[in-house]
Amino acid sequence: MSTYRVALIGNPNTGKSTLFNALTGLRQHTGNWAGKTVVRAEGEYEYNGHTYNVIDLPGTYSLFSNSVDEEVARDYIVLDRPDVTVIVLDATAMERNMNLALQVLEMTSRAVVCLNLIDEAGKLGIEIREQLLAEKLGVPVVKISARNKQGITELLRQIENVAKRRIVPKPVQVKYSEEIERRIQELEPEVRRLIGDDYPARWIALRLLDGDDSIIAALERRLGANASQTKEMIADGLSCAH
Ligand SMILES: Nc1nc2c(ncn2[C@@H]2O[C@H](COP(=O)(O)OP(=O)(O)OP(=O)(O)O)[C@@H](O)[C@H]2O)c(=O)[nH]1
Ligand SMILES: [Mg+2]
What we know:
Bound molecules: guanosine-5'-triphosphate, magnesium ion
Radius of gyration: 18 Å
Strand content: 15-25%
Number of helices: 10
CATH superfamily of the largest domain: P-loop containing nucleotide triphosphate hydrolases
Shape: globular
Largest sheet: 7 strands, mixed
Order of helices and strands: EHEEEHEHEHHEHHHHH
CATH class of the largest domain: Alpha Beta
Distance between the termini: 48 Å
CATH architecture of the largest domain: 3-Layer(aba) Sandwich
Number of strands: 7
Low-confidence stretches: none
Structural class: alpha/beta
């Protein structure tokens, strides 16, 4: 019997913790993220004979490591590589929420988009065609109301599909300017050669091009022995990209 790891990510106040409670009930505990004062809520549920370990990540508007919360969420998705990342969106504020969703889809393909507060959206006359959205985003999309425990069965089913690789999503990728795309193309194979296929090479290349040193630091912490080599080779990669 396998245990799968599921991460809940989303903007603040989108109902992540409500969903976390609906999924895990009393089987949860809280602590702190190692070395950080950010609360780490972890719980589990059983589904079709498997255990799913769920992490309720801190709510963030982006994942550029501008704050400890963003760093914790980013590092978990990029470095800890959960089996499934559930992107929790507020169905009444799709446009604002889509920003984070697209960022997460650059970091992992093992994702399910969960449109929460569908009851509120209904009251506002907002109608969402989830099939169309799923096709456009390239990942499963499920409408739920975490507070009313609606749509949870379908969510569990889609989480299982992605966890067991019955569905292998191919998320839409943001396309950047020609020049940035060219630089990504140069840098991405370097990154991949260095850190392997387990990490999102395109996303890391992008962060490096953006001058985000914190991802190098995080990778060094994680890769340990390879640290100095990582820095050197990424610097090489960067100098040929510029
Ligand atoms: N109407 C409605 N309200 C909901 C639903 N899910 C959550 N809420 C409410 O939305 C508010 C925020 O929910 P939380 O679960 O705390 O949101 P969160 O994403 O964990 O927030 P942060 O941890 O601050 O990022 C609470 O008042 C919930 O009761 C839902 O499906 N429908
Ligand atoms: Mg919360």
